[in-house]
């Protein structure tokens, strides 16, 4: 397991109006000189970069004193702090809060001082605006995909074509899509299940989350299908579920992580293969990631759990004619047609994940002892995820981290202030 911390460098916190702050209470920035003058950021300033970096977040009840990160002395103090924090606690990675509100030139030195993987929260859905900030950090959180992903799958009227187009935009604008952190839920936004109780739609969005390009983030509680619609009710108590490992989404996530891990281990090139959408319409998409022999083919739809069965003929998958392929969520095997296509029967709007059967030999995926596999000309995507699950594993593939993160974000300065 890797340890990843959520850190805030943009601001501290004060329980009161910004005019009442006692700066001597803060450590190490115990003087007003370390902070920008009090002025709340207005909703009328979203495109004003200077205002975003200089003005304060928060409100008149809970203000967030804004740190002068552009000050070389402040920056050096932060660099020394993060170097010590990472060393003292053997930290493996950082998630950096409110990146858009910090001087961009602060981050190269911070990332270097940390000496570990850093991904930044860039709350902006426009790739042309968000992606340039990756020049200053290892990675950014993939908000440009998030908004389109949720809209594509949170109802049966979502437009998958718009998501596919946005995927192409992100590929063109971002320096390295393989290290962007991809998510479908977080602590600041509505849980996916607050939009819809359709279990098939939820399975499709999680499948995309884990198997698309990037490093997947799974927010704690997704595996229990939590449904909080806003902060703080979207930060539910996990222990009330008794950490149920029999939950359908727990099993789905484990199975998806297992095939993703296997694909990384089976081929060095998987990590850097730029995913392709080999088919899409307004309600269905097929993604390919990986070169021939180790490719993962993912079939997704937003037609929902009440939809009629659909048979989709999938071409351009990289499979060979007559090759055996396994649908790894149901462990159903089939042979491709002579033209190398496969017929995928989409049952109840569920996702499907295909991998060359020969490439699974020696693994625990759909082998003896796992759910029965069957041969046929079609693969039916059942509503029962595979039970052939090992524990969720994490690992790094060279310079391309490949792990699943589950965390509850904590604002460290706020916690310290309350203590």
UniProtKB/TrEMBL annotation:
Q: Look at the named UniProt entry and state the broad enzyme category this protein falls under.
A: hydrolase
**Cross-referenced SMART domains:** Aamy (SM00642)
* Requisite cofactors: Ca(2+)
Q: Which UniProt keywords apply?
A: Calcium, Carbohydrate metabolism, Disulfide bond, Glycoprotein, Glycosidase, Hydrolase, Metal-binding
Catalytic reaction equation(s): Endohydrolysis of (1->4)-alpha-D-glucosidic linkages in polysaccharides containing three or more (1->4)-alpha-linked D-glucose units
Write down the EC number.
3.2.1.1
Which residues belong to any copy of the Glycosyl hydrolase family 13 catalytic domain? 2-260
Which Pfam family name is an example for this entry? A_amylase_dom_C
Q: Which family does it belong to?
A: Belongs to the glycosyl hydrolase 13 family.
- Descriptive protein name: alpha-amylase
Q: Which organism is it from?
A: Coniosporium apollinis
């Amino acid at each position: 397991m890797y340890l990843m911390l959520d850190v805030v460098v943009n601001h501290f916190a004060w329980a009161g109006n910004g005019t009442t702050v006692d700066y001597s209470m803060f450590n190490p920035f115990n003087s007003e000189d370390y902070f920008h003058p009090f002025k709340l950021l207005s909703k009328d300033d979203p495109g004003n970069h200077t205002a975003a970096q200089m003005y304060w977040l928060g409100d008149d009840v809970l203000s967030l004193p804004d740190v002068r990160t552009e000050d070389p002395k402040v920056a050096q103090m932060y660099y020394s702090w993060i170097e010590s924090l990472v060393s003292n606690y053997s930290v493996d990675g950082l998630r950096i809060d409110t990146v858009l509100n910090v001087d961009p030139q602060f981050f190269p030195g911070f990332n270097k001082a940390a000496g570990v993987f850093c991904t930044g929260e860039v709350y902006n859905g426009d790739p042309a605006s968000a992606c340039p900030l990756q020049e200053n950090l290892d990675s950014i959180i993939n908000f440009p995909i998030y908004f389109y992903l949720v809209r594509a799958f949170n109802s049966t009227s979502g437009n998958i074509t718009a998501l596919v187009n946005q995927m192409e935009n992100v590929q063109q604008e971002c320096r390295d899509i393989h290290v962007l952190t991809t998510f479908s839920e977080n602590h600041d936004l509505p849980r996916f299940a607050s939009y819809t109780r359709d279990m098939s739609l939820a399975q499709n969005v999680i499948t995309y989350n884990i198997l698309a390009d990037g490093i997947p983030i799974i927010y704690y509680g997704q595996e229990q299908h939590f449904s909080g619609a806003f902060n703080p009710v979207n930060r539910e108590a996990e222990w009330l579920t008794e950490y149920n490992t029999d939950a359908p989404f727990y099993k789905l996530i484990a199975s998806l992580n297992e095939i993703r891990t296997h694909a990384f281990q089976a081929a060095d090139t998987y990590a850097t293969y730029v995913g392709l959408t080999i088919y899409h319409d307004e309600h269905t998409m097929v993604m390919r990631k990986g070169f021939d022999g180790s490719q993962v083919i993912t079939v997704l739809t937003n037609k929902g759990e009440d939809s009629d069965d659909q048979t989709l003929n999938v071409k351009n998958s990289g499979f060979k004619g007559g090759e055996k392929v396994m649908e790894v969520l149901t462990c159903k095997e089939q042979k491709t047609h002579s033209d190398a296509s496969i017929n995928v029967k989409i049952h109840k709007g569920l996702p499907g994940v295909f991998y060359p059967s020969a490439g699974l030999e020696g693994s625990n995926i759909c082998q003896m002892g796992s759910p029965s596999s069957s041969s046929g000309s079609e693969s039916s995507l059942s509503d029962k995820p595979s039970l052939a699950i090992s524990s969720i594993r994490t690992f790094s593939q060279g310079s391309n981290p490949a792990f699943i993160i589950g965390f509850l974000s904590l604002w460290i300065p706020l916690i310290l202030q309350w203590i």
